[in-house]
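To the wet lab folks,

You asked to see what we're planning to order before we commit. Fair enough. Below is the target structure as tokens, and below that is the sequence we designed to fit it. If anything looks off to you, flag it before the synthesis order goes out.
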């Protein structure tokens, strides 16, 4: 996974916009669904950065604000690592999705049919390692240009004005 231990990682996201680097305002750039994007890339497939890979076709999907997104994200990331195929969401999370386990699994496999053969193989560990290598490369390249990057789980904080460069 990513780099952990910085004080900025443990503060609520509500306060992160108030972080300053050398007294300058910052912005947080989120890189969503990296594990899935890495698996698609491993297969030579490009996925638009605007595509919500956790949208599995449930009705009235509200993208980032949808309360079903978090348990779906948990489910997808878990089954990427679950070599036994036994993972199930806790009952409360399952209820939140609005579908039963079998239907959820089927929808995920249908949505990601091009990479479905990677699920339940343990590929998640590979994607975590690749994600950490990407994060390291980003931080080192920007540090080489005297730009500080603060890593968070699936995002980075940089000084305002450096977001496009980071992207």
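Sequence we intend to order:
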């Amino acid at each position: 996974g990513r780099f952990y231990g910085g004080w900025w990682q443990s503060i609520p996201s509500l306060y992160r916009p108030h972080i300053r680097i050398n007294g300058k305002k910052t912005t947080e750039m989120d890189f969503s669904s990296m594990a899935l994007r890495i698996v698609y890339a491993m297969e030579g497939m490009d996925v638009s950065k605007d595509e919500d890979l956790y949208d599995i076709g449930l009705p009235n999907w509200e993208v980032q604000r949808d309360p079903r997104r978090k348990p779906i994200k948990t489910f997808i990331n878990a089954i990427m690592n679950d070599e036994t195929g036994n993972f199930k969401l806790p009952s409360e999370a399952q209820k939140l999705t609005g579908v039963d386990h079998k239907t959820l699994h089927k929808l995920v496999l249908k949505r990601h049919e091009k990479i479905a053969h990677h699920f339940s193989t343990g590929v998640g560990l590979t994607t975590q390692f690749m994600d950490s290598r990407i994060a390291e490369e980003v931080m080192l390249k920007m540090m080489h240009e005297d730009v500080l990057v603060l890593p968070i789980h699936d995002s980075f904080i940089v000084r305002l004005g450096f977001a496009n460069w980071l992207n």
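Structural context that might help your review: The beta strands are 20-21, 24-30, 150-152, 155-159. The chain has six helices and four strands.

Thanks,
Computational group
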